[in-house]
Design brief:
alpha/beta; Rossmann fold; 9 helices; four-stranded antiparallel beta sheet; about 290 residues; 2 domains
Length: about 290
Amino acid sequence: MPKAKYTTRVLIVDDNQDGADALGLLVEELGSTVHVTYGGLQALAVATAFRPDLVLVDLLMPDMDGCNLVKRVRQLPAFANTKIVAITGLKDEKVKTRAAQAGCDSILTKPVTLTEIKSLLAGIAGSEVDAFPRVVRGRANDGNERRLPIDEARRIRSERKSRKLTIAECEAAICDGVIRFQEEFLGWRSDQICILIIKDLLLIRIRNALTVAERQLVKSAATGRDLIKQTRKQLLELARPMLESLVHEATGVKSISMHHDLSTETGEEVVIFSFPEVPRLSEAPGAGE
């Protein structure tokens, strides 16, 4: 299977939601995978799961300021080489010194220019991917990097005595199917798709699923939020047979229900399938061979 093109992952942390979203859309348009959070405490949990190459962090936030956040991130071995850039509207040199001591690689002054952002991303893209090591996990948590076409999943299953896929292979196959469906049928893309099989539940999280046009509709029209949710629900109902078939083929178990929710605040779409029993899957890639 050809190796997926590497995409720079950028985490944006700012309690000013409008500013954070605007910066996120800009970085996204420049070709990066983006996750936006609105506070330091939330950012700690997100960073651990998202594994960013670049963190853009506001220094003044109510729950945990940027310097304390950076200190705690730097204490984690996985983020020793992660590029962290502070963004602030303050011009006090003491603030900049404190940010540097906390572990920031550089500091940008608001408003950040397009040239500055392009320069940061170019620096990351120009580095070796190996300079940003990731923990190789058994689960396919990143849809853009871990995809397994269903035809390939069938081939793998047919070559095993157990005739079973691993959890990671099932998740990757479902992930690939969802991405292909949204790209070819719905015509929109997301930054990140996370597929998790948790006992008798299958959780599909489609982060940043809303397009720029949809985000603007939510903000500008009183009925925009309800209209988007209703439209997405109808589209998903059209996709239900395909999704149920894909899930059944990958896991070997037919789902009994499907629940859908869409946050027009964060742009995240969540689809949950429930199974009548826990899928019986291989424990490891070579299990049963």
